[in-house]
Write a structure and sequence with these properties.
Helix content of chain A is 77%, strand content 0%. Chain A has helices at residues 2-15, 19-39, 43-68, 80-99, 110-113, 116-127, 132-140, 142-163, 167-172, 183-205, 214-232, 234-240, 243-266, 281-320. Chain A has 2 domains: 1-101, no CATH class; 130-321, no CATH class. Chain A has 321 residues and is mainly alpha-helical. With 99 residues, chain C is mainly α. Helix content of chain C is 88%, strand content 0%. Chain C has helices at 2-22, 26-50, 57-80, 82-98. The radius of gyration of chain C is 17 Å and the shape is flat. The N and C termini of chain C lie far apart (44 Å). Chain D has 108 residues and is mainly alpha-helical. Chain D has one domain. Chain D is 84% helix and 0% strand. Chain D contains 4 helices and no strands. In chain D, helix 1 (2-29) runs antiparallel to helix 2 (33-59). Chain D starts with a helix and ends with a helix. Chain E has 492 residues and is mostly helical. Chain E has a two-stranded antiparallel ribbon. In chain E, helix 9 crosses helix 13. Chain E is globular, with a radius of gyration of 21 Å. The two termini of chain E are 23 Å apart. The interface between A and F is large, with 101 and 86 residues.
């Protein structure tokens, strides 16, 4: 059912010319796929996809549209036919691939046999936290996650280097439109923003027990700040969270994660082996996971806010000109 | 100060209700988080009577009880009209006066209007509210002013 | 009962989706997306009970939150572009008159 | 006791489902944006409330109940706010509502 | 600390990147980056030595044994590529400060170094890891930073080039992701070594075939194999000079490494070449790419673009060697990975020097270069000779091996193709040299590039000749690695 | 054939989604839309991975008493990482689009090509 909706949405996106509607539909697509992830037991993934696919990325797209215009011209790409051929080719290859796949959901598929069972059977013993996804994410494959933080960090830097303007120029710019005069929104969000922030921190520190963790928490935290800056104006928001502080925070989060690895290395174990952090392996793992999740959270929140600021500053500039 | 304390309490409550873990580690993390958020909120300048409406707390429940009743009634009404089709509705718009003195009161009023199906507050000014209603009757009900009075009563006696 | 509710929510989701496709104005679409979002929140909550693991309500809460923020964000950007909006409205009004 | 709770919760869920479905229908059937908004409104207040209430009854005392309450509260605060913002924005964007004068309505 | 070498290799530049951001002063950041990459170079040297002495090194990240945890697995092949990448990164960085000061706005310079280090770390990570999914993660780190670096170019076309590269690169990466997903589905593991063992059992399934297809196409996009090379010329042309020098020397080489790793280690030679007509696909593509790109580059007015097309052509040589599916062919490819990194690095550095003084790298800027910037000019000439493949240069060595490999298989037409390619290289390099030698300079008088650019330039040019004459290291490593990949040798 | 179709239905859906996404990327001229397409393409791969991890009768891999069938957590972890990569790519791509718009005054592929040839 959900899948069917997904297909419909995807086709609608392909055929809609109003880019604004496309972005709306993309948001729906994000929500849909997230619901689908819940239905397939991937709660952590659903959590993330909801925050990213339905939250952050449509917002960024809208900001882009605000700058680049809403309607797509009628012309198709030069590579229209070629593209179509390519698509068919890829589709064919995929279909060939499915022919020998194990059936969906089957218990004895190879993917369920080799590595995965150990995580489920042993992780509680070895890491002592119930959320297996967090165990795998933060400990068994902790290095992947370090890489993931670096990816976000890279993107933040990239966006900054693309959209930043030198300090001199920045000072010249004038006031910024805000929605402050919007009484209802102002009051309601004054109540909501602190609640969102605390919720974000709750998600941050309970990733070991339920769905959630550093990345999701970072996104929610950033979302609250973004809401604030939408309503009260970029300038006000920047006074609250200074940009250069954010840059440093983004770097520090990554460093915090890395330093856990360095510490474990210095105490004689392998990189990111949290057992080095305490006598008892369970405690060590737990400390390690809390610290690295904190690193993830800090970097993600800082980078997301930075990216959003960079986008919306461009808009303000455009609007003022 | 009063507002800070009340925000602190509310935030702690949210944390505890969500968390469900009462070990030392979690409680101390929770305390840290709450302090952090209060601090950020301070920087954001959102700690005041609008974000932490202590003075309203006692009166809200009875108001909400009344609102619930209204909600149910208007829901039934709108549902009926949906099934009856286009002919049964008569969309109308009106500017209504309001008597609240604080922004908070106005917001509660406007949101109550919106919350009851069939009427939506479109614009809120200092002494009027623009309302769109599914039926002419919806406007009349509001004009009778009961909701307005009740909300105003909420904000009295600070 | 839960299954019936799930189905009802799904149907409403489809309806919202249809509204989002049809438009005609951008506000209709935003409304549809908003409705869609709150329905997703419900869906997640109900599915949680359906699968017997109701302890994942955090996700539903996040959905509600994100949904609110996106709608506000959308409106913010739309106000930014409100000249375009007025233009579009006029266009639509004309097409409606014609039809 | 359990059966009573189950029946009540079932009733809540059913009624909620019916209401939500009606709202969805209204979303499709109503003629213009503003009226559709009312339809969406009913899916978001009573229907949501009923469904969540039904779930709360199923959940029993505990953390799940608290979370459901929080979701309900959150929706009750944000949904009118969002609708209002939307309506305001629509009006600001010069989208005129199709108003029906009472006489006009009768003549149709 | 020696036991931690594999992870140190990657983690040094990796963690230096955020520190660079905190340093804020461009000069400081540069110095720091340089020290770190020199350290990384030292580590890679030590690693190669260790692998020579003690065989394959396996490092368990997080202390979890593979396949449950992520493993770093250094054998001769990746130790060799690690050395290539880190030496080139260090040498280019040596000259970066001067060039960056001129080409990149002041407030963006620290970001440049930070991104540079991230890119560097990403490339090292791809090479060092023994885990298929980890490859994807680090691939994205390096790609994202590359896009951003390219977009730092002054010309507005840099933006467009970066966008195109981003789209193509992401498609490529997603293809690789699909492929890895299919493999995981069929085997239940992500560890490369484990994959290689478990894949035999499911070799005949179409799912593995599809995975094979996606991974080959995905990596080919990344390494700019002929019909998928469209992103490359623009990206190289409009990126800042130092970025071009760095990515031209390393990024495609790492993609080649990934291809080799998947083809030979994971799927295995018998699967890749025995079961499928991979050679019949790769070789014609390589040949067409080689010839057409060389021809196109002759008529390019922009020298940077000319060299970019020449890079596509050189990729052709490398893929040709891989496509032969023989130990000798693979040796030639591996040799060319190293050699091409050196010559292209050198040539692009020479162009960086020209751009620094002349403000551009069009053919017009080269006029009379022999008089105005003789040292740069001669470096270019010598680098060009190496590109053509004149004896005593590294270019000759790898082409010689390629020809040997072709003769071994009895594929005479390929010998001719290689010769024709060299001939075309003579034409396009010759054109620049001619302008530089005979053209009238716009502003007469010596105007040599600053030593900070000349030193790294001449280091690379000298290396072109050193390794062209003393081939013990390169050929030794390449032959052993190739033999090992083909399943013959012991990994030494 | 029918059996095959039924037991793999969501792989087929994923394929269709991939094709649609991929089609938008290669065949649409608008740069923003390409990014949306890229998103769809990537998301479909995510769905694929998560489908691989689903175990019939299993629940979410958060350990509780009394349940012993869990879905496979590994794909979830991988996809968490991939989602992050996806949003990173999107952000960067959109930033590029904004700069392109500023530099060229257009975000249509065909117009960009024309404008490049002029100078």
């Amino acid at each position: 059912m959900l899948l069917f909706l997904l297909i419909v949405t995807a086709f609608a996106i392909a055929y809609t010319k109003d880019l604004f509607a496309v972005v709306m539909l993309a948001g729906i697509y994000g929500l849909l796929s997230a619901s689908f992830f819940v239905a397939l037991d991937a709660v952590d993934v659903a959590f993330t996809e909801a925050a990213v696919g339905a939250g952050i990325s449509p917002l960024l797209m809208l900001a882009t549209l605000g700058l680049t215009g809403r309607f797509q011209t009628q012309t198709k790409s030069r590579f229209y036919l070629l593209g179509f051929a390519l698509v068919v080719l890829v589709g064919a290859l995929l279909m060939i691939g499915t022919a020998d796949m194990p059936a969906f959901g089957s218990v004895d598929a190879p993917a369920q046999q080799h590595v995965a069972p150990r995580y489920i059977e042993k992780s509680y013993e070895e890491i002592a936290i119930p959320n297996v996804v967090t165990s795998v994410l933060a400990s068994y494959r902790g290095f992947d996650t370090l890489g993931e933080v670096a990816v976000i960090f890279t993107a933040g830097l990239g966006v900054l280097s693309l959209l930043s303007i030198s300090r001199k120029e920045e000072e010249k710019e004038g006031g910024v439109a805000s929605m402050y005069e919007h009484t209802i929104l102002r009051i309601v969000s004054k109540i909501l923003i602190p609640a969102m922030l605390i919720f974000a921190l709750y998600v941050q520190f309970h990733g070991e027990y339920g769905p959630g963790g550093g990345f999701q928490a970072g996104v929610i935290f950033a979302a609250a700040i973004i809401l604030y800056s939408i309503l009260f104006g970029l300038d006000v928001a920047k006074r609250v969270v200074n940009e250069s502080v954010l840059q440093i925070l983004a770097a520090l989060g990554l460093l915090l994660y890395g330093s856990v690895g360095v510490v474990t290395m210095l105490s004689g174990k392998n990189f990111l082996d949290y057992n080095a952090l305490a006598e008892d392996p369970g405690t060590g793992q737990h400390i390690g996971i809390i610290v690295i999740e904190l690193g993830v959270g800090i970097t993600v929140a800082a980078v997301m806010i930075l990216i959003f600021f960079a986008f919306s500053r461009r808009m303000d500039r455009e609007g003022g000109a | 100060m009063r507002h800070t304390v009340s925000m602190f309490v509310v935030l702690s409550l949210i944390w505890l209700l969500n968390s469900g873990f009462f070990t030392g580690l979690h409680l101390s993390l929770g305390l840290l988080s709450v302090v952090l958020v209060v601090w950020v909120a301070y920087r954001m300048d959102v700690v005041d009577h609008e974000s932490a409406p202590v003075h309203l707390t006692l009166r809200l429940p009875s108001y909400y009880a009344w609102l619930m009743k209204e909600l149910v009634l208007s829901n039934i009404d709108v549902t009926k009209r949906i099934w009856l089709g286009k002919k049964s509705i008569s969309p109308s718009m009106a500017v209504l006066p309001l008597s609240q003195r604080t922004d908070m009161g106005r917001v509660i009023y406007a949101n109550s209007i919106t919350l009851t199906p069939g009427t939506v507050a479109i614009d809120l000014n200092s002494d009027t509210v623009v309302v769109h209603s599914l039926t002419a009757g919806g406007i009349e009900d509001l004009r009778s002013g009961e909701m307005d009075r009740r909300v105003s009563r909420l904000e009295k006696q600070k | 009962m839960l299954i019936a509710t799930t189905l009802a929510i799904l149907v409403v989701m489809i309806m919202a989706l249809v509204r989002a496709f049809l438009g005609p104005t951008i506000y209709d679409r935003i409304l549809a997306v908003n409705t869609f979002g709150t329905k997703t929140v419900l869906l997640i909550a109900v599915i949680g009970f359906l699968f017997g693991r109701p302890d994942f309500l955090d996700i539903a809460l996040v959905y509600a939150l994100i949904n609110f923020i996106s709608v506000i964000g959308v409106l913010r950007y739309f106000e930014y572009n409100d000249e375009v909006a007025a233009h579009e409205y006029n266009e639509k009004a004309e097409t409606q008159k014609e039809s | 006791m359990d059966t009573v709770v189950n029946i009540v919760s079932g009733a809540c869920l059913l009624l909620g489902s019916f209401l939500i479905f009606s709202g969805g229908l209204g979303l499709l059937r109503f003629p213009d944006f503003y009226t559709r908004m009312h339809a969406a409104g009913i899916t978001e207040t009573l229907a949501t409330g009923l469904i969540l209430l039904g779930l709360m009854l199923l959940a029993g005392w505990g953390i799940v109940l608290a979370k459901l309450m929080m979701i309900l509260l959150f929706i009750l605060i944000t949904s009118p706010t969002a609708s209002h913002a939307l309506a305001k924005s629509a009006q600001h964007g010069k989208l005129a509502p199709q108003l029906a004068e009472p006489e006009d309505q009768r003549s149709r | 600390m020696l036991a931690h070498l594999p992870i140190l290799q990657v983690i040094l530049p990796f963690l230096a990147a955020p520190i660079c951001l905190i340093l804020r002063k461009p000069k400081l950041a540069w110095l720091f980056a340089l020290i770190v990459s020199a350290a990384a170079l030292a580590v890679s040297g030590l690693l190669l030595q260790q692998v020579y002495a003690g065989g394959v090194i396996s490092y368990e990240l997080g202390g979890w044994a593979p396949p449950w945890g992520i493993e770093y697995r250094i054998d001769l092949l990746n130790a060799y590529v690690l050395l290539v990448v880190s030496s080139l990164a260090t040498i280019v960085l040596l000259g970066a400060h001067t060039s960056v000061q001129k080409e990149i706005e002041a407030h963006k310079q620290t970001w440049f170094y930070s991104l540079y280090l991230l890119c560097f770390a990403g490339l090292l990570g791809i090479v060092a890891t023994g885990d298929a999914f980890n490859v994807f993660v680090f691939l994205e780190i390096s790609s994202l930073s590359t896009y951003a670096l390219i977009a730092l170019g002054r010309d507005r076309r840099a933006l467009w080039a970066a966008y195109q590269y981003l789209i193509m690169g992401t498609i490529g990466a997603t293809f690789i992701l699909i492929g890895i997903g299919f493999l995981y589905m069929m085997t239940g593991t992500l560890n490369m070594n484990d994959l290689a063992m478990r894949i035999d059992a499911v070799e005949s399934t179409t799912t593995v075939l599809a995975a094979f297809g996606f991974i080959v196409v995905g990596t080919s996009l990344k390494l700019a194999l002929f019909p998928l090379h469209l992103w490359l010329p623009n990206a190289y042309t409009y990126a800042p000079s130092m970025v071009t020098a760095f990515i031209a020397a390393t990024a495609t080489k790492v993609a080649v490494y990934v291809l080799i790793r998947f083809l030979f280690t994971i799927f295995g030679e018998s699967y890749s070449f025995g079961r499928h007509p991979l050679a019949e696909i790769l070789i014609p593509l390589a040949i067409i790419g080689l010839l057409s790109a060389s021809t196109v580059s002759i008529s390019q007015p922009l020298i940077k673009r000319m060299l970019a097309y020449s890079s596509v052509a050189q990729i052709g040589y490398i893929v040709l060697g891989i496509g032969m599916g023989s130990a000798l062919g693979l040796t030639a490819s591996l040799l060319h990975v190293f050699n091409h990194a050196m010559m292209k690095g050198g040539l692009f550095l020479a162009l960086a020097a020209v751009t620094y003084r002349m403000g551009g790298s069009e053919i017009g800027h080269m006029r009379g270069l022999a008089r105005t910037m003789p040292l740069t000019f001669w470096a270019f000439v010598l680098g060009g000779l190496s590109l053509i493949g004149v004896p005593l240069t590294v270019g000759f060595v790898s082409k010689w091996y390629l020809i040997l490999a072709a003769i071994e298989l009895g594929w005479w037409p390929i010998v001719i193709v290689v010769l024709v390619g060299s001939l075309l290289a003579v034409l396009y390099v010759g054109r620049v040299v001619e302008t530089g030698w005979f053209g009238e300079p716009e502003k007469p008088g010596r105007n040599e590039a600053p030593p900070s650019l000349l030193i790294p330039l001449w280091i690379l040019i000298a290396a072109n000749f050193y390794f062209g004459i003393d081939t013990r290291l390169t050929i030794g490593v390449a032959e052993n690695a190739a033999a090992w990949l083909m399943g013959g040798g012991s990994g030494l | 054939m029918i059996e095959q179709l039924l037991s793999h239905y969501n792989y087929w859906v994923v394929i269709i989604l991939m094709m649609v996404g991929f089609y938008i990327v290669v065949a649409q001229g608008n740069l923003v839309k390409k990014v949306v397409g890229l998103n769809i393409f990537q998301t479909s791969v995510f769905i694929f991975y998560i489908s691989v991890g689903k175990v019939e009768g299993g629940t979410a891999p958060i350990l509780v008493e009394g349940v012993d069938v869990y879905s496979n957590p590994l794909p979830h972890v991988l996809i968490l990482t991939a989602i992050v990569v996806g949003i990173a790519t999107t952000a960067l791509a959109l930033a590029l689009v904004i700069r392109i718009k500023e530099a060229y005054g257009s975000v249509e592929e065909s117009e960009l090509q024309i404008r490049d040839q002029q100078c």
